[in-house]
Amino acid sequence: MPGHETDASATGTPAGPAPVPGDALVVVDVQHDFVSGALAVPHGDDVIAPLNRAVEAFRQRGLPVIASRDWHPPDHCSFAAQRGPWPAHCVAGSPGAEFAGGLRLPPGTVVVSKATHPGEEAYSAFAGTSLDEVLRARGISRLFVGGLATDYCVINTVRDALARGFAVTVLSDAVRPVDVHPGDGARAEDEMRRTGVRFTTTASVVGTPPDRQH
Ligand code: VGL
Ligand code: ZN
């Protein structure tokens, strides 16, 4: 219950690696279909509040906010009608592909659309996009990552970020897995930790929200 947090959360002061110039926030695929639509991730809506706090902290500091989105053609190879593994989801321009209603993205958010070709799956926000160039042009070396889903687009984005030399911090309360096979999300987190990813709560990076300070 509120009133019993320790150290950082008692004061609202971040205990972790507060965002500084050179950092960017990457919000992965927080779209209607993944939150409450055709391919809803269990508890996917839980990521929205922490991500809004992270977004606001980056915005206040003038640091880049990137939002990736799954942006499929109607006949994408990952859809069941094409013998793919997923129900149709995030069709470009459709309501299901819109960012989740509660997500507050600031003006200037860089939107990265991926998996836009019918015959190619692309779970990583780097795959076939300009994300790498965008980050390098802005002198970014460290990424804070949250979004959906831990075991698909988050982990693949993180793998590519590490391979490109970015340091990565995952906001542990701002990711959720699909868990098609039980444990997929936990295994994805294990792999990320093993490969050098730091996990930290949003509060420890950007402080606690005003209604939880005391
Ligand atoms: C995703 C399944 C299918 C994701 C995208 O964003 O994690 N998962 N397409
Ligand atoms: Zn997809």
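^ zinc ion complex. The chain has one domain: 20-206. Residues 29, 34, 39, 70, 78, 86, 123, 148-149, 152-153 surround pyrazine-2-carboxylic acid (ligand 1) (CB under 6 Å).
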